[in-house]
Amino acid sequence: MSYQKSRQAELEAELKPLLEKSELSTCRIDIQNEYTQLVLVNEPQRGLQLATDTNEITEKLAYHDGIAYSMALMGFACYMMSDYESSLMKLFKAKSMVEQSGSIANRAKVFQLLGSVKLSMGDYDQALSYALEALKTF
Questions:
Q1: Which of 72, 92, 118, 133 is most exposed, with minimal Cβ within 10 Å?
Q2: What CA–CA distance (Å, rounded) separates 56 from 78?
């Protein structure tokens, strides 16, 4: 079993009791976001739905890091489906959020994803700029 499948199974086991309780917590959001990231690599449409669902419940908690990460995952899912315009819209929204929240890890992820989208669109200067910004974050 690959690491990805193994980790996905672990996260499903962690999520199950949290979902049964129906209580919202930052821990639940973080697990859902990590699970979504693993899913959308192979199933971008399902990943987009999971990220959208997570984003909706995260807004109820006003958990800004969780909102930004789920928005970035929505952008990543759109990128995986070659919908670059939608991807950029979601990633720019996530970028704005991470710049306000100050989350270093999320900031790096968003800039890395922006670089990937710009690279796929042939905008090499912007791709390089975003990639360098992601690296400078750490």
A1: 92
A2: 17
CA 85 remoteness from chain centre: 16
The two three-digit tokens of residue 5, written as one number: 């499948």
Q: Please, what is the end-to-end C-alpha distance for the chain in angstroms?
A: 32
Q: Where are the alpha helices (DSSP H) in the chain?
A: 3-21, 26-42, 44-61, 64-80, 84-101, 104-120, 124-137
If you count them, how many residues does the chain have? 138
> Rounded to 5 degrees, what angle do the CA atoms 15, 46, 21 make?
25
